Amino acid sequence: MKPNLLSTCTWVFFHLLLVPSLYAQFEKQNATTLVVRVSIGSYQHAAPPNLSVQLQDGFGAIEHEGHTDTRGMVEFSTFTATKRIRIFGPGIVEHEETIQIEPVENRKVVNIIVREDTKGANANSLPGSTVPTARLNIPDKAQKEFQKGSDSLAKKDWPEAQKHFTAAIAAYDRYDVAYNGLGMALASSGNPQEARTVFEKAISLNEKFAEAYRNLSRISLSEKKFDEADQLLTRSLDADPLNAWALAYSAYAELQLRKFNDALAHARKAHELEHEGLASVHIVAALALESTDRGADSAAEYRTYLEEEPNGRDAARAKEKLAALATQAPK
Q1: Calpha distance 148→146 (Å, rounded)
Q2: Best CA proximity match to 71, nearest among 42, 48, 89
Q3: pTM of the predicted protein model
Q4: CA angle 10, 18, 226 (to 5 degrees)
Q5: pLDDT by residue (tens digit) across 13-67?
Q6: How far apart are CA 272 and CA 166, in angstroms?
Q7: Is 313 exposed, middle or buried (0-12, 13-18, 19+ CB in 10 A)?
Q8: b vs e for 56-80, b when ≥16 Cβ sit within 10 Å of the residue's Cβ?
């Protein structure tokens, strides 16, 4: 293995973990309220509480993440523009769709029907099984505090979010998603060790809680505990096998651990999915190939990266690598 092979690009990829992506949409934007109403199978069957709902901008960057309430609804404060919505959780098939909020809409209600998952990784987590039953027994007071905490989290008001999530837990001490929300607020306010303890509690209450595993892995990655991060991401993928972020960062952690074949497999799996904002997974794949003396094959990964992010932060390095590989090719 070449001495500086892993260090050539990984500082860029690791930087993407810590610094949020900033995107601009070239259209007039006005403040608005978006209400997402989720149903399962038909409009007559409201979704259960605590399904995860992500609001993304038109480029796929996550703006907010909330959870359905007892009515199957979640509310976001956002701006008029093209948005993406991702819905996932126990008992449903993950759903994504794009919506348009017009500049004149100061409040928009979106009704989304998702499909029940009877065959996938979440088939045993349908309403009536252990975890959903515990969630459906949540007292009203805890649910209201949780929703207030989620609203504060969306507004990046970390102290207020901590207060409400703590109150939700006080009202119902088995509230796994409230522990997860509290961990997110703590991590965002610069308290990773407190957040770690809270995420671990969420996982102890729900061993299939993919989002909590991912959140805990972020702390491990920031501390460069790559073996721990890889184990956590493996657990998250057991519950949510088609999560592109988890696949991409599993690949990154495995690259650091010199598990090159695993890194390559996860990187290629991420590429098969929608992975906006994760193009650097192809840099990981290229480095894994070079590390196993398959440098010629790495050229395809560098080209794919340039196709996905021609002006990305790794673009110049990818072009340099391609030029170097061209000179090494047999005449």
Answers
A1: 5
A2: 48
A3: 0.65
A4: 55
A5: 544 444 333 333 344 578 889 999 998 887 667 888 889 999 987 767 788 888 9
A6: 39
A7: middle
A8: bbeebeebbbbbbbbebbbbbebbb
